[in-house]
């Protein structure tokens, strides 16, 4: 899937992907306790409970109403928001610096009156 990275980066990527899937399975277990209370949050356990080899596809159909809340690669990643509503967390107000700030940063004697 990602040909631009080397083996250590690919292994880290796959590790993060597997962790995300296991966290999502644990969340689904809590969202649907009637179906998955005694099921471990692993693909094998969910495959046995569902009786299917395509676990993620079956689960997406079962918990479709929760997809906007679940993280990727299973859900729709709630961290991504519409650009109109996104507010930068640590970005200051854009625009020029006030003149007093410029004068304070100029070393003494650097500029002389012409």
Helix and strand pattern: HHHHH
Q: Runs with pLDDT <50, length 5+?
A: none
The amount of helix comes to 40-55%
The number of helices is 5
Overall average pLDDT: 77
Give the DSSP E fraction (strand runs of 2 or more residues).
Answer: under 5%
Largest sheet: none
Quaternary form: single chain
Radius of gyration: 25 Å
Q: Could you give the count of β-strands? A: 0
In whole angstroms, the N-to-C terminal distance is 63 Å
Q: Based on Cα principal axes, name the global outline.
A: elongated
The SS-based structural class is mainly alpha
Descriptive account of the structure:
The chain is mainly α and 114 residues long. 46% of the residues lie in helices and 0% in strands. It is elongated. The termini are far apart. The model has no long low-confidence stretch (mean pLDDT 77).
